[in-house]
Amino acid sequence: MNNKLSRRLLPFYMKLPVFWAFIIVTFIGEVLWVAAISKFPWLDLRWSSFGYAFGIVLGFINGKWTSRLWEKSYLQVLKREITFWQAKGAKSLTYFTCFALGLPVVGIILIRSMAQLAGIQSYVFGFVGGMNVALLLWVRRIPK
User: Rounded to two decimals, what is the model's pTM?
Assistant: First the structure.
């Protein structure tokens, strides 16, 4: 095995068509979610917009961080020199991901209105979509 990362070495879930599918599904999910909650006139859709935007930002940060980790350590993991948990930055990435996705859980506990609940669901769609966009951009730079 040479010491250069290529797209063919990546697992199935890191292939470009899979990323496009995830991005499209999360966008459709968000559109359907907003369409469903817009039926309730007493819900403030600004929470949903804020949650989606905030999720995209944190998801993109998570995706960039994940791509840096994979770029530096994936070949070492394939060669079984280290595990991903031993890779530099893996623990802090895991803690960040748990915090970022744990935010909605804490948000549900502290919820004050149904509008905020709508924002939490949009946050999750945004997080997953933003993370996949960052990873897609990284994979596109890797030689075939």
Answer: 0.86
